[in-house]
Amino acid sequence: MIKSKPPPSPYVPVELQPLQTVNGKASSRQAVILDPQGEATEVGIVSPEYKLVKNSEVVQVAEDLLNSTGMPVENHQTLFNGKKFRQRYLLSQTTGEVKVGDVVAVTLDAVNGYDGSTTFGLEFNAIRLVCSNGMMLSFMLGGFRFKHWGSQNFDREMRVAARQLTRVGDRLHMVLPMLTELTHKRMKRADIQRFFAETNLPITTQAKVFNAIEDDTRWGVYNDATSILTDQKRFSAETLNRRVSQYFLLPN
What mean pLDDT value characterizes the chain? Predict the structure, then answer.
């Protein structure tokens, strides 16, 4: 059995290199090259407007922001597939109780992409502390995209991002009643089948979720699904996690 190659370190060197057409003329596009002095892997073809921000710089900005607010954090998870990057920080005191003993905490996720699919920014998501499964809730908790990296306007963007960070607890408490409501509604087999169909989860994931169900409330099924997706530690699973979260929390 051939083992898949592990992803590189998220902090290996990266640079932009010009491209040429087949007749040797300069292309209007650029290549993003990971580890240019080593394996020199092309991970993206981007436009001239693309601004390369290194993952190490993304982490530094996130930690400077956290330090400026004085909010206590825990470094929870790093995810990198060679192209997309996510550094997750658990905001350990920005929490809320869904039901007695069942607490969720906000995460600050610093995100970046070397392939142009994700721009440098921040997302606010959540973690259920009892089992550490992630809930992709930035569509409700918000986030921030940096547009002026390396310019004079970046300091202003940092101040705006800091204000959003200090207010994210208020947004969590606006979402909490919706999460609590899920604990009061049970799902019949037909409801679960409809959930699988409308979220288009892979068959193997559907089977794992179905076999994991012990609490048949909407909250229980939601957490079974997000727990299994969190364990996959892939960006594609995070996309599905967001879709599942939208299914349970937005009007169908």
Answer: 92
Q: How many angstroms separate the CA atoms of 201 and 241, rounded?
A: 10
Summarize the confidence of residues 193-221 as an average pLDDT.
96
**Whole-angstrom distance, CA of residue 218 vs CA of residue 172:** 19
> What number is the average pLDDT over the span 85-106?
95
Distance between CA 19 and CA 89 in Å, rounded? 37
Q: Which has the closest alpha carbon to 126: 114, 111, 115, 136?
A: 136
34 phi/psi in degrees, rounded to 5 = -90, 135
> For position 2, what pLDDT does the model report?
54
Q: What is the 3-state secondary structure (H, E, C) of the chain?
A: CCCCCCCCCCCCCEEEEEEECCCCCEEEEEEEEECCCCCCEEEEEECCCCCCCCHHHHHHHHHHHHHHHCCCEEEEEEEECCCEEEEEEEEEEEEEEEECCEEEEEEEEEEEECCCCCCCEEEEEEEECCCCEEECCHHHHCEEECCCCCCCCHHHHHHHHHHHHHHHHHHHHHHHHHHHHHCCCECCHHHHHHHHHHHCCCHHHHHHHHHHCCCCEHHHHHHHHHHHHHHHCCHHHHHHHHHHHHHHHCCC
- Residue 251 in this model has a pLDDT that exceeds 90: no
Band of the pLDDT at 20, cuts 50, 70, 90?
confident
Which residue type is seen at 199? T
pLDDT tens for each residue of 123-168: 999 999 998 899 999 999 999 999 878 777 888 999 999 999 999 9
Cβ burial 228-243 (10 Å sphere, 16+ → b, else e): bbbeeeebebbebbbb
